[in-house]
Sequence to fold (313 residues):
Amino acid sequence: MSILSKPHFHDEEAAYEFVEARVWPDGRVCPHCGTFDQSGKLKGKSTRIGTYKCYACRKPFTVKIGTIFESSHVKLHIWLQAIFLVCASKKGISANQLHRTLGVTLKTAWFIGHRIREAMRGRDHAPFGAGGGVVEVDETFIGRDYSVKPRGYLRGRGYAHKHKVLSLVDRDTGRARSVVIDDLKSATVVPILREHIAPEARIMTDEAGHYRYLIRDFAKHYVVRHTRGEYGLGPVHTNTIEGFFSIFKRGMKGVYQRCRKQHLHRYLAELDFRYSHRSAVGIEDEARAERALRGIVGRRLTYRTTHRQIGVQ
Fold:
């Protein structure tokens, strides 16, 4: 049977029960007053599906309050279909494709995508390379940063006018973490690495100047000199993170195509999440969607804050 044939993808009551079992695994909690397991289900003919009343504060609530689903008029089972589609698509799924597949407007599909990406943003801030593990570090460039004007005779060449992304991949755990940065100065890059990488880690980078003095902050720093034709010296290489960038570029250029800087961190969160929970580390599509669903609480995103400028069509 197809995964998308399951009841919670088609029946609204089943969808509420599915989400409630994951948001309230130990019993219902009132989102208004925080009271635990002191509520009852409202069963009137005009009552909305999944509505409960708290006996402490006397206010009604549903499992959607305080999550990415709050105040959304889209049916919950449609939301679950969208989450599965986003999690199962290796390189992402465009707003246009969600619009056609789910039968919602393009504007709604765009906003659904951003709310799901918000749920995918990592809550685990444990440093990479703990216990002396290997962490590969590299940067890449994507799109066009309109706050920077191209200079020189060959305008549009180089990377100064592009969005700059710094990424880390923990070779032992398979996790990835990416950050949007303003420039490639050591003063910008090194504090980020100190924040996200354990001091005992072994760092592997290319020969870029902003990585020159990492040995001061970490146990080991190995350099792969691409300008000399080096791409791997046994275990010393940056091929893992180059593979991550290949998926990242295919998603951003082939699926999403255009992205403004103020939205880029959410697209990075989506790509980091799927890479860190990929089949190679034993997590398949259904389990990946379940993990994304765990991140919906406390991640409400309003259309006004998201839609200051539409960066992706």
